[in-house]
Structure of Thioredoxin reductase:
Amino acid sequence: MEQRDLVIIGGGPAGLTAAIYGRRAGLSTLVIEKGMVGGAICTTEEIENWPGVKHATGPELGDMFKDHALSLKAEFLDAEVASIKENGLCKIISTDKGDFEAKALIVATGASFRKLGCPGEAEFAGKGVSYCATCDGAFFEELEVAVIGGGNTAVEEACYLTQFATKVYIVHRRDKFRADQMAVDRALANPKVQPVWDSVVEEIAGDGMVEKVVLKNVKTGELSDLPVSGVFMFVGNTPNADLVKDIVDTEKGGWVKTDEKMATSMKGLFAAGDLRDKSLRQVVTAASDGAIAAMSAYEYIAEHF
């Protein structure tokens, strides 16, 4: 069985930053990622809120992270992790390419956007369909957009989008929002916000880019077209926490619970990035988590080994 000081599961901004800090601390470091290194940012067309880089595509920024980690001689393995087990103070990570023993483990597997599954959603992802107003709102300046959802995130992000869009429609399947009343009052007081009640999205359509959403009224069954240039989906996120959900403490929704040092309820196992229970999920906060987790792992190893 191969051994490393630090194993990181997940090759997004949190995991890659952890690899950079782990190597700088002198830890033998292995990043295990099944799929594209870079994480969810690789599905983003443009990123303009990473400090110091005015503009980059998601894949470009992901490559920068990976290249930095490689320059410090972090190791990478394309493999799928099957399980995590304790072996004394160490962790055994079983993958489809063998088992690895780690003195400390960081899980940085991120989160997945909950999809509606309607026709056109996948086709127009990055071409008018977005799951992040903070990331993409500025691209819809002087255009009309639709927000799908009725919870706090949907209502609050709709208000945020009014900084750019001329009109923001909030499409909700019920006749009132589920969001906190203060957020609802603020949204409804904004002249750019227009609720579309009792409606669900049947289809997202356009020619190369989003041009409209087809809505269905859940009470009457009537179909209607809503011309928009962007569709922001806020129907929830799901943490990619299957590997650890039964071995560490989690919060409602399955989000992994950590302290300020990114430590979970299992000693020697840290979590970083979007699978954590946290208020803001951005590249910059994921990177911050990764740095903290790596240094906490270093402290753990120095104390126990």
In short: The mean pLDDT is 95.
